[in-house]
């Protein structure tokens, strides 16, 4: 991990980014898609050229030891990584910048900040790695209600406090980034094995607060299942749950805070269930005549109780875009792994399920196959993808993803409906065809988690509205067809209108009441999940 | 399933019960344990001899179509199946009988009942199969706060409404009993495969409301994981969550209601994840030199990611009591099963883990071994056990169980401490030694769920106080040593003092606020989990 600071605009740290080759490959791909050999370019303003609104609140003396209102800090904490936020960054619009940024070093610092925020009517926005794609970290608040907003960056909570090898668990501070976490576990032969796409620039606390989806495509998909206990600071005090492998004592307290997106408290550490590092592997890409055939194979594998570590499928276009295939076949990335025992038998049975739906494996030598061929190419593209948007957006390309989940009985009609609605919206909004692809990132015995990607050619000056219109059409379609507004990207501020339809109104009443009990001044991440 | 009504005292339906042979075997066992050849007997009064307090509230005309204040109904809804309740039944003490019993047929009936209860200051106690062992269904309420109490029996919500074979899910009404549920799924080749010990006399709604623990000893142990969506009636209206295989949209709404023990609403139906019926099996009892060696093997199997369907261990005394072994060895009941593929390889690997800790399997022919030998004897004893207490209690025998969970790093000292504290309490309270045994009912990669059984010779006239003193000592010990007050028996009213220590105080504040939002009059199961 580089020691450089995070970029204020774009993905990763200063000095990192897409290579020239990656950029020109993307240019070529979009050129072909939209029939253009040239894109009108717009560049984002450099940091020094940004004009931020003057802070509306000043840092109180008692907090000055860990707070700053410096330009970089405010700019780098204005936005997450959603398309809409990236557009506003491109335009140099930092109207929603936090008034200052706090970097607490202790729970007492956080409590002091909360006390002050409550008395000063200032909103607090918890910030981990800033990789939210749903407006979860942007201080987009009601200025008639709040006198200001402070971004609360957890980066100093970056250690592993204890490792219990006997129970295979570790006590990990919430602000630690993915790579540092894994680096500390590795000498012990352990791994959290939770690798969201944002892994390099997201934190344990962020994963828990947003119910992030990780490496495993089946069984333990969400961070939820890996949490053994939690510790949070709330405006009313500390909450710490017991370290327990399981319990039946009332509603699970951890589950109220997992996915609470910073509105109930700030997670400071958690005991996490960790794994031995895998030693046995088998994997292959499997080619299918079409996406629905591949989906049937996924269903068969899941309902067989086989639990592959990876069982993702790409539709033919998605496979072509990422170099995993030629565009004529759908591809399944299938892999089993174990720290304890050989997995070839499970792999062979999964391949039989694939064969039932005309799936043909790419490799016949099973071990380590998961990193070769189509699977390896897709994996590499997946990891590099986030670096490209800060370039493609300069060309006016609107590209975004959205993910959901649906039961198997409704999957095909659901997929067709959502894809068609998004394609129609792209045509209507931009005046030309775009592209909508789909893959499964995770799958369950009772249904898959389809993940859609879309590409459209927007117009500089209208990118934000165009993106919003496409996003709205897609979200309307998937909610109307019975899906969830998010499988693992969270709700934030951007998904509120659809989340409000999805979750029962009386659950919102209960959540609002719970928030009122823990955060009576309503200072924690207002506008996320519920209105304060 | 017999069509007879449930007994008002004891386990099961009228006409069922322990055989003479079972009763005399128990008499012999306790005679040996306590060195007695004769027990002073006390018999419970028959139904006709009971004197119930006159109803404090009368059934309003609008609800009279589904409510009754008949003697049988009130008596049969006074108690669950805890030892303390059984003692009071033995004594003919029905002071806490509900004023009447409601048998709603529709959600509208439930809403009407809730509306009336709110306006009349009457407590409503949801009732499924009445198998609570924690005082969860007893109308033990504060009479200065409530003018009366009504037991709300869900027995008419007893159908499967829909089966989705594609997604392997079923929409099941909450009042259905275990055997009826399985009978309706069987023709479809499906099973919920959730078999708590109370299976025959407990309901889906009860399982969900109390986070019941089922058949599977690993992986899907609690009912929690099998719930796809829920529907509840609350005093503020209906809550229905979406059918989704997974979601990351805010805190999981189902998880607030799973384990809510009737204080937030009454579950009327749920979409449940069901399984294909298993076709492949392998299993065996495995004998170990001692309990801790067996525990180390359980840990190894779980951390190997093998997920046996059964992986329970009995300490030598428990194994002897249930006829599973001679009393010299600890016994593991180990079984794998699958609807899809052979499981011998997994079984062999698990037996290797056992061998590492000196575990010797009973059978070498693996298939169907799980129903033979020690494993089969233990299983039979397990299922018949609840029928015995209504006899042993007549002899003044205090026998009860309590279950918990703890991480592996603390297990041995935890077990020794809790066992010693319970044994000491028995000696102190009854003046003579008793017996405390332990088994694991469920296990996880990060820890086991130890399940303790104790036997003591009490004194008629003091049984309730003696039981309470022993229970208190055991509960104090396990909470002080870091365990949970319940792994799958729920909290109810009896576990409140220890639950109050276990759960974070601020979580109770949040839960209280959520209840206030859904049940502002505080009529639902007051005293359970939190004070209203």
What does this structure look like?
2 copies of one chain form a homodimer. Chain A is built from 16 helices and 18 strands. The first copy, chain A, folds into 4 domains: 37-51 and 63-153, Uridine Diphospho-n-acetylenolpyruvylglucosamine Reductase, domain 2 (2-Layer Sandwich), CATH 3.30.43; 160-276, Uridine Diphospho-n-acetylenolpyruvylglucosamine Reductase, domain 3 (2-Layer Sandwich), CATH 3.30.465.10; 280-386, 2-Layer Sandwich (Alpha-Beta Plaits); 388-489, GMP Synthetase, Chain A, domain 3, CATH 3.30.300. In chain A, strands 15-12-14-13-17-18-16 form a 7-stranded antiparallel beta sheet, sandwiched between helices. In chain A, strands 5-6-10-8-9 form a 5-stranded antiparallel beta sheet. Chain A is globular and about 70 Å long. In chain A, α3 runs antiparallel to α14, α8 packs across α10 (344-355) and α13 (411-430) packs antiparallel against α14. The model of chain A has no long low-confidence stretch (mean pLDDT 95). The longest helix of chain A has 20 residues, at 411-430. In chain A, 32% of the residues lie in helices and 20% in strands. Chain A is an alpha+beta fold. Chains A and B meet through β9, α7, β17, β18 and α16 of A and β9, α7, β17, β18 and α16 of B.
């Amino acid at each position: 991990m580089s020691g450089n600071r995070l970029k204020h605009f774009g993905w990763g740290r200063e000095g990192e980014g897409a290579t020239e080759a990656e950029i020109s490959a993307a240019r070529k791909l979009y050129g072909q898609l939209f029939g253009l050999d040239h894109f009108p370019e717009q560049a984002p303003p450099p940091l020094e050229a940004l004009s931020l609104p003057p802070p509306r609140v000043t840092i109180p003396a008692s907090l000055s030891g860990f707070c700053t209102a410096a330009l970089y800090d405010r700019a780098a904490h204005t936005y997450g990584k959603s398309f809409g936020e990236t557009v506003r960054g491109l335009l140099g619009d930092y109207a929603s910048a936090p008034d200052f940024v706090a970097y607490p070093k202790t729970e007492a610092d956080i409590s002091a900040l909360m006390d002050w925020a409550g008395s000063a009517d200032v909103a607090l926005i918890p910030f981990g790695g800033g990789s939210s794609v749903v407006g979860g970290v942007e201080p987009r608040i009601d200025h008639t209600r709040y006198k200001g907003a402070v971004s609360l960056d957890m980066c100093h909570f970056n250690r592993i406090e204890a490792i219990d090898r006997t129970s295979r668990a570790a006590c990990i501070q919430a602000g630690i980034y993915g790579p540092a976490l894994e680096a500390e576990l590795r000498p012990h032969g352990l791994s959290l094995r939770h690798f969201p796409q944002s892994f390099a620039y997201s934190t344990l606390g962020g994963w828990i607060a947003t119910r992030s989806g990780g490496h495993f495509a089946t069984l333990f998909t969400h961070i939820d299942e890996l949490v053994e206990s939690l510790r949070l600071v709330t405006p009313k005090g500390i909450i710490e749950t017991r370290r327990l492998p399981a319990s039946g004592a009332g509603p699970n307290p951890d589950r109220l805070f997992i996915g609470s997106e910073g509105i109930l408290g700030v997670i400071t550490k958690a005991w996490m269930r960790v794994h031995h590092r895998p030693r046995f592997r088998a994997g292959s890409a499997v080619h299918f005549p079409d996406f629905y055939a591949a989906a049937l194979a996924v269903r068969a594998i899941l309902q067989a109780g086989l639990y592959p570590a990876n069982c993702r499928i790409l539709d033919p276009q998605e496979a072509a875009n990422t170099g995993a295939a030629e565009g004529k076949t759908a591809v399944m990335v299938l892999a089993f792994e174990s720290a304890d025992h050989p997995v070839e038998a499970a792999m062979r049975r999964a391949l039989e399920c694939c064969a039932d739906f005309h799936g043909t494996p790419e490799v016949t030598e099973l071990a380590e196959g998961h990193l070769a061929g189509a699977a390896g190419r897709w994996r590499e593209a997946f990891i590099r993808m986030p670096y490209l948007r800060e370039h493609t957006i300069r060309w006016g390309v609107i590209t975004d993803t959205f993910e959901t989940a649906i039961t198997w009985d409704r999957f095909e009609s659901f997929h067709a409906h959502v894809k068609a609605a998004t394609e129609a919206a792209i045509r209507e909004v931009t005046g030309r065809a775009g592209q909508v692809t789909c893959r499964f990132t995770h799958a369950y015995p009772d249904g898959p988690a389809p993940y859609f990607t879309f590409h459209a050619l927007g117009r500089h000056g209208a990118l934000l509205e165009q993106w919003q219109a496409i996003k709205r059409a897609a979200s309307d379609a998937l909610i109307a067809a019975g899906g969830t507004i998010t499988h693992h990207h969270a709700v934030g501020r951007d998904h509120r209108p659809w989340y409000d339809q999805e979750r029962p109104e009386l659950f919102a009443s209960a959540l609002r009441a719970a928030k009122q009990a823990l955060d009576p001044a309503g200072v924690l991440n207002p506008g996320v999940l519920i209105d304060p």
